[in-house]
């Protein structure tokens, strides 16, 4: 980087610091322009070669359209499942001869993992257990289950903030469970196909 020289600040040449700063700004502008050109070049290269991020590529074609069933369509687990199915480019339909994913049960438990000296809860283990079943086009039902576990530090002094944090963790656990169910559903299809 440039340093402003004290000799240039003499009365003989009062514009010398301005010249040095303008050179510095010009070099920074050139550097930013070079960074932007490299970014555009990298993006152009990735799009030109046909590269795209994997999103639902492992899902078999007959599972690209399915029906999601649940006892409560507005339950938090059902909403998370629907979101993950759509994120994997799976089209959801209400009727038809398609694969059926049924969410049978979702249980949320929290157990005390450790306590403070005063006897208050310090840390909890949050457990989400989801039981589901997949009915393939051959009309056979196959059970799939998943369990997601997280630890949560519970500080009673910041109850409101911890309550909001706990809800964020539960939502993240539901999304993870939904991703695991999709993975198990695809693995089940591959297993049935090989039999």
From TrEMBL:
GO terms for molecular function: lipopolysaccharide binding. The keyword S-adenosyl-L-methionine does not apply. It comes from the Bacteria. Keywords: Cell outer membrane, Lipoprotein, Membrane, Palmitate, Signal. GO terms for cellular component: cell outer membrane; transporter complex. One of its GO terms (biological process) is lipopolysaccharide transport. InterPro entries: LPS_assembly_LptE. Belongs to the LptE lipoprotein family. Together with LptD, is involved in the assembly of lipopolysaccharide (LPS) at the surface of the outer membrane. Required for the proper assembly of LptD. Binds LPS and may serve as the LPS recognition site at the outer membrane. Component of the lipopolysaccharide transport and assembly complex. Interacts with LptD. This is LPS-assembly lipoprotein LptE.
């Amino acid at each position: 980087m440039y340093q402003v020289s004290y000799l240039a600040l003499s009365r003989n040449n009062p514009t010398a610091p301005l010249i040095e700063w303008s050179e510095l700004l010009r070099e920074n502008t050139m550097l930013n322009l070079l960074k932007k050109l490299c970014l555009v070049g990298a993006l152009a290269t990735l799009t030109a070669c046909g590269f795209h991020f994997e999103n639902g590529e492992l899902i078999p074609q007959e599972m690209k359209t399915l029906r999601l069933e649940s006892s409560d369509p507005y339950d938090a687990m059902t909403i998370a499942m629907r979101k993950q199915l759509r994120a994997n480019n799976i089209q959801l339909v209400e009727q038809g001869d398609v694969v059926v994913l049924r969410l049978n049960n979702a249980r949320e438990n929290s157990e005390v993992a450790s306590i403070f000296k005063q006897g208050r809860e310090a840390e909890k283990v949050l457990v989400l257990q989801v039981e589901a079943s997949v009915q393939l086009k051959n009309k056979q039902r196959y059970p799939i289950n998943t369990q997601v576990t997280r630890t949560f530090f519970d500080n009673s002094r910041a109850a409101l903030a911890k309550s909001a944090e706990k809800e964020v963790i539960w939502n993240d656990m539901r999304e993870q469970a939904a991703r695991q169910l999709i993975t198990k559903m695809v693995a089940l299809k591959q297993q049935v196909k090989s039999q």
